[in-house]
Amino acid sequence: MKSSIKSILKFIYYFFYRYICNYIISNIPVWTIRKYYYKIIGMKIGEGSEIHMSLYTLEPRKIIIGQYSHINRGCFLDGRGYITIGNSVSISHKVSLITGGHDKNSPDFAGVFLPIIIEDYVWIGVNVSILQGVKIGKGAVVATGAVVTKDVEPYTVVAGIPAKVIGERSKELNYKCSPNASFL
C-alpha cells in the first residue's frame, strides 16, 4: 500500500514539475504567466529578469536567477546540483547548464551533482555547455559553442572544446541586459 502511494506521489511530482513546466508552461508566449508558474514551483527570479520560451528545467526549485538577467530560447537548466545566476547575466539560445552526471567508477552508476555558479555581468554565447562544479567569474564571456569544464576567471573570454582563455573583457561594466518585453 505504501509503495503504491509513493508511486502515485512520484508520478504527480514528475507530471507537475517536469511535464507541465517543460512542455506546456515553457511554451506559453507571455512571460508574466511563465514567471508566475516558475515562482510557484520554487524557482527564484530577480526583478527585471526574463526567461524566453522553450526552457527545459530539472529541479527548478534549486535555481536562483538574479536581477536583470536574460535567458534566451531553448536553454536547458539542470538544477539538481543547484544553479546560481547573478545579476545582468546574458545567456544566449540553446545554452545547457548541466549540474548532474555519474561516477564512472561506481559499480551502481551513482549520480553526482555539483553546483554551477555564474557571477554578475557574464555573457554566454549560443550553444554553450557548462558542466557541473564550474564557476564563471564576474564579467566573463563564454564564446559560442564552447564546452566549459573548469572555472572561468573574472573578465576573461573563453572559447573552444574544452574552453580555454582567448582574451580579456573590460572591467567597466554597468548595464541591465533584460529587454523587459512581456511577449517573449
Number of strands: 19
- Going by CATH, the homologous superfamily would be Hexapeptide repeat proteins
What assembly state would you assign to the polypeptide chains in this entry?
single chain
Helicity level, as a percent range? 10-25%
SSE pattern, N- to C-terminal: HHEEEEEEEEEEEEEEEEEEE
How many domain modules? 1
Residue-averaged pLDDT, rounded?
93
How would you characterize the largest beta sheet? 7 strands, mixed
CATH architect. name: 3 Solenoid
Going by helix content, strand content and strand pairing, the class is alpha/beta
CATH fold-level assignment: UDP N-Acetylglucosamine Acyltransferase, domain 1
Q: Taking strands numbered 1, 2, ... along the chain, how are they ordered across the largest sheet?
A: 2-5-8-13-16-18-19
Put simply, the count of helices is 2
The 3D shape can be described as globular
Q: Radius of gyration over alpha carbons? A: 17 Å
The CATH class label is: Mainly Beta
Gap between N and C termini, in Å? 45 Å
Percent of residues in β-strands: 25-35%
Structural summary, described in words:
The chain has 184 residues and is an alpha/beta fold. It has one domain (2-168): 3 Solenoid (UDP N-Acetylglucosamine Acyltransferase, domain 1). Helices cover 18% and strands 28% of the residues. It has two helices and 19 strands. It has helices at residues 2-24, 31-40, and strands at 44-45, 50-51, 56-58, 63-65, 70-71, 76-78, 83-85, 90-91, 96-98, 100-102, 111-113, 116-118, 123-124, 129-131, 135-136, 141-142, 147-148, 156-159, 164-168. The longest helix is centred in the first third of the chain and has 23 residues, at 2-24. It is globular.
